[in-house]
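Below is a typical protein record.
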Amino acid sequence: MKKLIKNNLLLKIILAIVLGSILGNYLPESISKIFITFNGIFGNFLDFIIPLIIVGLIIPAIGNIGNQAGKLLLITILIAYSSTLISGLMTYGVSIEVFPKLLENENIIEFGSENNLKPYFEIAMPPIFDVMSGLVFAFLMGVSISRLKGNYLKNVFEEFGEIIMKIIQKIIIPFLPLFIFGIFLNMTYSGQVFVILKTFVKIIGVIFLLHIFLLIMQYIIAGFIAKRNPFKMMKTMLPAYFTALGTQSSAATIPITLAQAEKNKVDPKIAGFSIPLCATIHLAGSTLKIVACAIALMLIQGIPIDFLQMLGFIAMLGITMVAAPGVPGGAIMAALAVLSSVLGFGEEEQSLMIALYIAMDSFGTAANVMGDGAIAVIVDKIYHKRKTVKTN
């Protein structure tokens, strides 16, 4: 049991939430403030590292995609990005209709209230540059590197990206459960925790139903374009779906996704091109979770939700998460920049987003992977149609 918890981030997060929700009622204030002090330091570190995560992950991602020139690449990227946008907009529409009714009896909470525990001390860690500066710099450098003939700068940023991924894997991810424990400890102390936990339970069910609907919609579109039975194609892709549930990583599931896509009569050349690419750039399931969780948190805080603001958030989210590393929880780490810069989420909101996201990480990854199979079918159909036109 100890080994299972040690190697399972989801179980650690659940344990942190449970312990924080219980011990907040019993721990002396002097002890609790030790954890709050850690949270203050770790939260400042997150603020410092987020712009560097953006630079370290987006530049190599754009640089590597840019080297694979060709219309088929552009078509695949457009289809994947459109799928992500549609997922986000669909989730926004459903959330705006369903969540206000679902959460109408919940009390409005205010993070950072006077009832919260305060740390013993703080260590300021001002970011080297802000998030939007990091995004602009990353896009400009990524596109420029993709057009350069030499590999020097590309290699430099790839190595920097590896350093950032090591920081995520060795520092941020291991300390996240303790950070989330401190957040829930503080919320229990200030009387906010039960509103949050009830919100968790209610929205997880809605998100699960939404992700099933998303997959059916994707395969109906793919089936219509390819003139094939969408449900038979979905059945063929189920091994990839269940593998993704276990691995929580689109990248780790690529071999199974490739094999099942080929069983769906996708040309092996197209599958070998589109599946690994989509494992990086297609994050419709992840976008669904993040948009739904963000709207739920805004509602229980009484924050007005503006459509144009959410549209910009979804559009930026689809681009930013291309940089998500192939580790459990990677997408939400990449998305923190957009959550803070566009929606103004602070330390508490970001930590809750991390907890909510990781609690459903398997389902989001599985939705991403199944969606990759649908995109492969569409790209295959477009490829062979263009090939037939050229031959004639």
Summary: The chain is about 80% helix and 0% strand.
